[in-house]
Write a structure and sequence with these properties.
Helices cover 39% and strands 15% of the residues. It has twelve helices and 14 strands.
Length: 372
């Protein structure tokens, strides 16, 4: 079997799909995007395409190594996201060619269903509370809320009180038996993250996500040692090398690689295995589309240290048969490859040029740049 085509499809609202075709008629799908830089990743994919055409798609590890190590410069979000999309599609092809799910190729599943969690959304506390209640009513056993937008590195008591009141209201609304996580999104300084964490400890959180930015691992270590709440992070880290120091210094209790960024299924399962050595959990990041969700579910089915799976779509309008969440879980599929069938007819109405831009935030009082 040989690769005959690599096509890139930008799909609304901000997804980028990779379609790899073969001379045996088997097609594989992946997802590759850097949010706000879709066309930059597309260029990387077109350059990788020159190498991939004519290659055997079942030699996944060889192709991964050649794409990553065949260049003088390694890593980074653009190259790793491009590789991720290709890697997902190659596993999809291999699974389809052997008529087995990808998780079987990884060594089999360790669970029969995958725990999902839902985002709490709302501009006001009242809206957030209603969103959390709706998630519980839908059967989810875990929710995640985020800090309000555009905080400064350090804020005063008014901001702190507002966050505490918001999160307390959510906890009261969902009750003590629903798991609750808070995403700091790397928007505040480590010092301020510690202040907030101390106030949040009474909420019995499952984890705090990205309490500070990931570039300085020692800063994350300081936060982790300053609170009893488990720390989760990793969405902005790429490949096993990006997670090495984080795990060695035990800066996080849960790793969150994104399989559309970190190096795909191949690297995602290696990161999960690395985390297992340090007794850290594995909770794949995924604010993207249904193909990345499908890839994440395959690794989550196999990873012994899996915690919970993020999602923003179940594939309505993208997949012929969208995923279904029952009682907060997605049942493990026995369908081959990634277990999905992309609806290319519906995709035609959702295509766009890939020109979605990440919002740039600025502080209202002085116009300085705020972290997104």
């Amino acid at each position: 079997m040989k690769i005959t085509a690599v096509n890139v499809l930008h799909v609304k609202p901000r997804f980028t799909f990779v379609k790899i075709s073969t001379d045996e008629g088997i097609t594989g799908w992946g997802e590759a995007v850097v949010e706000g830089m879709s066309r930059t990743v597309e260029t990387a994919l077109q350059e990788l395409k020159e190498f991939l055409i004519g290659e055997d798609p079942t030699r996944i590890e060889f192709l991964w190594q050649a794409m990553y190590r065949g260049l003088f410069y390694r890593g980074g979000p653009v190259l790793c996201s491009a590789i991720s999309g290709v890697d997902q599609a190659l596993w999809d092809i291999l699974g389809k060619s052997l008529n087995v799910p990808v998780y079987q190729l990884l060594g089999g599943s360790v669970r029969s269903r995958i725990r999902m969690y839902k985002h709490v959304i709302g501009d006001t506390t009242e809206e957030a509370v209603q969103s959390a209640k709706q998630a519980v009513a839908e059967g989810f056993t875990m929710v995640k809320a985020g800090l309000e937008a555009k905080p400064r590195f350090v804020e005063g008591p008014a901001f702190i009180s507002a966050q505490v009141e918001r999160m307390e209201a959510i906890r009261e609304a969902i009750g003590p038996h629903i798991d609750f996580a808070i995403d700091f999104h790397g928007r505040v300084s480590p010092t301020f993250a510690i202040q907030l964490a101390k106030r949040f400890e009474k909420l019995d959180l499952l984890f705090i996500e990205e309490p500070c930015l990931p570039e300085n691992v020692d800063a994350m270590v300081t936060v982790a040692r300053s609170t009893s709440i488990p720390i989760a992070t990793g969405e902005r880290l790429y490949t096993k090398w990006g997670f090495r120091e984080l795990l060695e210094k035990q800066a996080a209790a849960i790793v969150q690689p994104d399989l559309a960024h970190c190096g795909g299924i191949s690297e995602g399962r290696r990161i999960a295995a690395m985390a297992e050595v340090y007794y850290a959990g594995f909770a794949p990041h995924n604010p993207l589309g249904p193909i990345n969700l499908a890839a994440s579910l395959q690794v989550s089915a196999h990873a012994a240290n899996f915690v919970a799976q993020e999602h923003v779509t179940l594939g309505e309008g993208y997949l012929k048969k969208p995923f279904e969440v029952n009682e907060g879980y997605i049942e493990l599929s026995d369908q081959p490859g990634l277990g999905i069938e992309v609806d290319e007819i519906q995709l035609k109405d959702m295509m766009y040029e890939g020109n979605w831009r990440s919002p740039r935030w600025f502080h209202d009082d002085d116009g300085s740049v705020a972290d997104w």
